[in-house]
Amino acid sequence: MYGQIGKFTAAPGRRDDLIAVLLNGTKDMPGCLSYVIAKDAQNGDVIWITETWDTKESHAASLQLPAVQHAIAQAKPMIAGMERTAQTEPLASFYHQNA
Q1: Which of 7, 47, 84, 97 is the most exposed place for a label (fewest CB within 10 A)?
Q2: How far apart are CA 68 and CA 62, in angstroms?
Q3: Contacts (Cβ under 8 Å, ≥6 apart) of 56
Q4: Residue 15: closest CA among 59, 35, 45
Q5: How much is the average pLDDT of 81-97?
């Protein structure tokens, strides 16, 4: 498996707009085992994205999907900064749903 953790800093006041774009543009990505979008608890402009993929190649291929390309184009004006903070080698991926 392949994973990465990224930090997006939204333009001031645009975090919720950016989250909406990311939620809509990242639904159907073959090979994606987990894609978690989270608000930073201390900084109102920061979003954390934690991804788990079956392979690094699946992640790279996802960036070419039309829906993802569209989301990238929509998101660019809302992003003040972006960094990949870690590449990871996930050992397991679980999905827990609250009842």
Answers
A1: 97
A2: 7
A3: 2
A4: 45
A5: 83
Maximum C-alpha span of the chain: 38
The identity of residue 21, as a single letter, is V
- CA-CA-CA-CA dihedral for 60, 5, 23, 45, to nearest 10: -130
H helix runs in the chain, sequence order: 15-25, 56-62, 66-75
* Mean pLDDT for all residues in the chain: 91
Backbone angles phi, psi at 11, to 5 degrees: -60, 150
Residue 26 is predicted with a pLDDT of 82
What are 1-46's pLDDT values in tens digits? 999 999 999 999 999 999 999 998 888 899 999 999 999 999 999 9
- To the question of pTM greater than 0.70 for the whole model, the response is yes
- The owner of tokens 């930073």 is 40
